[in-house]
Amino acid sequence: MTTLADPAIAPRRKGSTDFIQKIALGIAILLFALALLAPWIVPFGPLDQSLLSRLRPPLGFERFATGHYAGTDELGRDVLSRSLYGMRLTLALAFAGALIGLLIGGTLGLVAGLRRGWVEDGIMALVDMQIAIPFTLVALLILSLLGSNLTVLVLVLGIAGWEQYARIVRAEVRRLSSLPFIEAAWTAGAGPVYIACRHVLPNLISPLVVQFTLALSNIVILESTLSFLGLGVQPPQPSLGSMVGLGRDYMPTAPWIVLVPAALIVALTFSVQIMGDWLRDRADVRLRDR
């Protein structure tokens, strides 16, 4: 009788995991390449309309319009072109939001780890407040009050996950602070800025890269949700979430309008999440050696 810990089945389990990770990595690279090269590979412009070709099905169905391989929407716009441009914008917003969250959370976590006392207590209280309140509701409130332009949207996405960075950085800084080389630096009279830049930050790169990758997929979902509700990217500019939101009324007659961008959202979040898990396993020595 074999068990989960049986060495005989461990290689098969690890091989299966590696295969999934390779598939996810390939999907992620393909999607990033398509988004990056969208202006040069799309057959039509994302805003080009042709009412004579409206609601045409994808390739392989009757009434297929030549060149519109994924069909057209209610205004005759090419669904494939809009989806790739929408993925391009969604990824740009996700990267900007994750970077802002990294800067805010990383800075506050670093300060909380190096400066104990009331400074640390105040920062961690903000972290607890962010965790306690469902951020989607906060985002809806902010966008309703300030409007849904791209600048406000990027700022909202940026503060979506800063608390995760703050918690990770604070925990790592406190762990590193107890190590002999940090104590030696304090004893030698080094200031907090020198210690942070010279000794602490180089040891934070690995966990921050992992968290950045995981946050990227979460922000993609958040942006898609806000755009689906009409508070994110505004028409006629396409994003994956706004395309799903605008196309839901045509689901019974033209489901491809929704299915194509929805499939890209699923593939994007799945592949990036698996990549984040793989990076976390590689960064953690205990998990890497299993």
TrEMBL record:
Residues 87-276 form the ABC transmembrane type-1 domain. The chain crosses the membrane at residues 23-42, 89-114, 135-159, 179-197, 209-233, 253-272. Coiled coil: none annotated. Its main location: membrane. Keywords: Cell membrane, Membrane, Transmembrane, Transmembrane helix, Transport. It holds the Pfam family BPD_transp_1. CDD domains: TM_PBP2. It is a multi-pass membrane protein. It is found in: Cell membrane. Belongs to the binding-protein-dependent transport system permease family. This is ABC transporter permease. It comes from Sulfitobacter porphyrae. The lineage of its organism: Bacteria, Pseudomonadati, Pseudomonadota, Alphaproteobacteria, Rhodobacterales.
